[in-house]
Design a protein that fits this description.
The structure holds 2 protein chains of 2 kinds. Chain A is 65% helix and 0% strand. By secondary structure, chain A is mainly alpha-helical. Chain B is an all-alpha fold. Chain B has helices at residues 15-42, 57-68, 70-81, 91-112, 121-124, 131-155, 164-175, 177-200, 218-246, 253-288, 305-324, 326-330, 332-359, 375-398, 405-413, and strands at residues 212-213, 216-217. The radius of gyration of chain B is 22 Å and the shape is globular. The interface between A and B is medium-sized, with 29 and 32 residues.
Amino acid sequence: MFPFNFEWVWDIGHVVFMGGLWFALSILGAGMTFVIVKAAMDTMNDSGESHH
Amino acid sequence: MDSALIPEGAERCSFPKFMIGISIVGAVLLWGVYAMFLCWFKGLNQTNMNDYYGFALWIWADLAVIAVGGGAFFTGLLKYIFKVDELKNIINFAVIIGFICYSSALLILAIDIGQPLRGWFIFWHANVHSMLTEVAFCLSCYFAVLTIELIPNILENRQANKVPFFHHLAHNMHGVMAIFAATGAFLSFFHQGSLGGVAGVMYGRPFAVREGLLIWPWTFFLFTWSAAAFGPCFTLLVTKITEAITGKRLVSDKTVHLLAKISGWMITTYIIAKIIDTIYWATVTAPSLGFKMSHFYTNNSFYGYWILVLEIIVCGVVPGFLLLNKGTRKNPTLRLIAITLGVIGVCLNRWVMVLQIMAVPVMSFDTWALYFPSWQEVATTVLPVAYGIIFIAVAYRYLPVFPQERELNQSKAE
């Protein structure tokens, strides 16, 4: 899973598989971080729309 | 008693009546949980799996719930990426069904691996040459996507939505949902496909093996296609069941007809591809490996040509035609028959691709190996069904799942 795991090899298989996994996790993590931070800021400023 | 939690303007049964229903299904759930703990504490000797059946009832159930749960990713793709706005009326429910299906799939896998404490090994010590590793990665990530898609609906609960942070969070999550839906569609494409790919690359099993494109056998594409085709059928079927139980109309005919029409097109195109694949396999692939088609459907007490006809014609061609044709699609009874046949068809396809594969003799000295699950396997397979019923009951009671519910039932209430 990580380059410091003993079985890690820098080959195409690891790069594609793990790259794909970390890419997907990064999108989900970044997306959630963005909405949580924005919600916190909206709450503090109370500037968010009151309906959706 | 719990009226403060029930969506504004929605009518629900009394709390005691609700709890009686939950208790009855809860008893079934507990039976499954008991069997699950037996498997965990005593081991996989509680099952009837053996050297022939390393994959058994659980893996069929796993593949079946993942296929029927495909309605969530496909509906999300249509709603958020292709901007089919009409589907906003059913997307919440599709996500709930998807969440139940995928959490059930992960639960089944946790039982199936025998030692759930080592479940994280598949990530930490990943075998990058395995299609099942890809399945594990995409399945887990897509479950995270479904959880993210479900959160706004939970936060829109009448009481939760009064908390300013939750209100803003739900609002902001709706704003970026297209990104999550696109990620979910990408992940679903690969895990649905890889589940099919597992069968297609079984070179020692002529019943399953297929040619393909680059590293992907045709079964890779057929599995993704069938999940997108039949998943919406399951969404519509569960919606119909929920409407029957609650005695209310929850989704408008316009939305149902649209999803049924899309499903009809997907089923028809899928089944044409499936028929071509089957003919090519029967006339080229299997003979090139030294087998006649009759080898896979005769000389045993269960698997005959009937299963092929049932899967492809009765549960494939027929629902495709019924949903594609405007007249039959708009007839509620025929539409219900079509979506029910569709759901049976995709489950049957997964049965064939998991269990018939194991049953077919491969060596010249081999015989057919039929298998019957133990009660523990049956109980743990029923467990997700009970869990799903409870989840839907609770979600329907406390969350604003169906945006059209009030409007569709207004005349009734008056």
